[in-house]
Amino acid sequence: MSASAYASPIEKGWYYLHRLICGAVLLFLITPILVVIPLSFNSVPFFTFPMPGLSLRWYEEIFMTERWQGGLRNSIFVGVAVTLLATVLGTIAALGLSRPNFPWRTAVMSVLISPIIVPIVITAVGTYFFYADIGLLNTYTGLILAHTTLATPVVVITVTATLAGYDHSLTRAAASLGASPITAFFKVTLPLILPGMISGSLFAFLTSFDEVVVALFLAGPEQTTLPKVMFSGIREQISPSIAAAATVLILFAVTVLVTAELLRRRSERLRGIR
Amino acid sequence: MATMATTAVQTSSVGVPLRITLQRVERRRKLRAFGLVLPLLLFIVIAFVMPIGRMMFDAVHDDTLLVLMPKTTAALSVWDGKDLPDESAYAALAGDLKEAWSQKTAGRIGERMNYELSGVASEVKSSARKASMLSAGPYKAAMIDISSIWGQREVWSLLKRGRSAYTAFYLLRSADFQYGPESQIVASPPENAIFRDIFLRTLGISIGVTAATLLLGFPLAYLLATLPARTSNLLMMAILTSFFTSVLVRTTAWVVLLQDHGLINETLMALHILSQPAELIFNRFGTVLAMTHIQLPFTLLPIYSVMKSISPSHVRAARSLGAGPFYAFWKVYFPQTLPGIAAGCLLTFILCLGYYITPALVGGPGDMMVSNFVATYTNEQLNWGMASALGAILLTATLLLYFVFNKLVGLDQIRMG
After folding, report:
1. C-beta atoms of A96 and B261 within 8 A
2. For a 10 Å CB count at each end of chain A, is N or C smaller?
3. CATH T-level topology, domain B195-413
4. CA distances from B4 to B13, B22, B51, B56, B339 (A)
């Protein structure tokens, strides 16, 4: 749609004003994120443009110093464990949910996705009280379990959406040809829903990797994650090393987003939707 | 022959009617489907629903006094609350305090009583130490001599309320009420009456942010819905990048931009527009700005998806029938976007109510929202009853609003990517 040739001057004025407003809103949306990236390469510990010089010293700090390195290590460890648990539990549940005539589907689904509905502080505090009782505070197990509750809804939603486009007669065809349910799943269903599973697990990893509030409550000094180091860094003394960590998280989110989009396109192509 | 055929259809090989067999197969299928969901359902119920349910329960349940001062609370069941209780209650008190001193629980009793009557914690502790040295009665005069708080009726009313393991104190406190000297409900004194203010502030910030995201998001959603697919997909990538960047990172970006020696202030000072840094952070302005930035995609995306489904021929038809461009937009296009506006705004409003990170990092002391107080009461004040009560109110409000959201739009509208 462009300003048509027969539009009145007022209409044209509105048209350009609308474009201008949209440009400003887009700038507002994206600038704060884009500004952080160059600042992480600043050679001096200030947040000003023009930068006196470029340097990788802040990346050196986050990849080499014990505090940041430990955070990164913990984040990856917890993230991988959460991804494995959430993907397995979430996919199995999605398989059950997408069967026809699943009993009490709405009620069960509301319980399963409740972790992304409840405000995050409530989740953190509720789990904190519970863990204080059973001795899971300041343990890897506790943090992994708490993050898994937050990550499973993402997997359930993504895989259920993929299964909605899955033709169940394929499983029946496999069964009629003599495949056991297990064989039919691994040989027929799994390859077809794999793109959805992978994007689900990527989002699950991202959920855990970015999560800070639950980690603030449940993780001890041993389990400090990267976002937790960032959070306390912002509170104490904000330095470009925080911008560097933020850049790492942004790059990571973009990678996940692009991968998921590519997978979605591939799976649509494979099923002949486009 | 005909009879035989009918029987063959209606019964399977072992003589069970086909209807029953089918029912059994169906039931087995249902059970198998449910069995697949069961592991996750159990996990979520045990690791998530139960802890939160217990937190809600803790908002009205507190048996500290009942457990730690059993004799006193039992002795007070016959007290009428008019005068000071009699010698037997004081004897029970001395007994409980002696026990508390030897079990080192006097501190917890003091803290619990301090929630309702501030300033008594140290008195309770020192009374327990002194009571442990009392050997024989009469206790009434001796206890009042040890600390004057035992001569106050409100202290005894508090102990009498401790008889029940359930208390409305935390919820009352969250609405700026408390118990008076005779256990009647009175308004909290000004120094305690902070909670209505906190809830109103949370509501105010949420409404402000919702309005701001609608104002900014609507024009952009309209542009995206009317642009050719290639361009709009490119712009959509920008919005989704922002959407998938974590709240912490986006809040960090705003701290970098807004702080005293941050990008905006330094730039404005370098251009000699400002002579000293403007106060952009640790106030309401910074909080609302950063929250608007974070919530914008949540409001925009539902509006966009509704606009996508509106056929452009409607507006064209209106124009061809003689409506002016604004009249056609306002009377034909805009009403069709209302479901999207309702969904986007409601979602943003609900999410805003539970904000924690952004007010904590960008807000000042006057911008802390309900979540921040839940966290403070849990970590710093160690008043878990208060944290539970505030949390229970926030959670109830959130769930009610989600119920409305579900009725209006359907929860399956919440999608990831």
Report:
1. no
2. C
3. MetI-like fold (1.10.3720)
4. 13, 21, 61, 64, 60
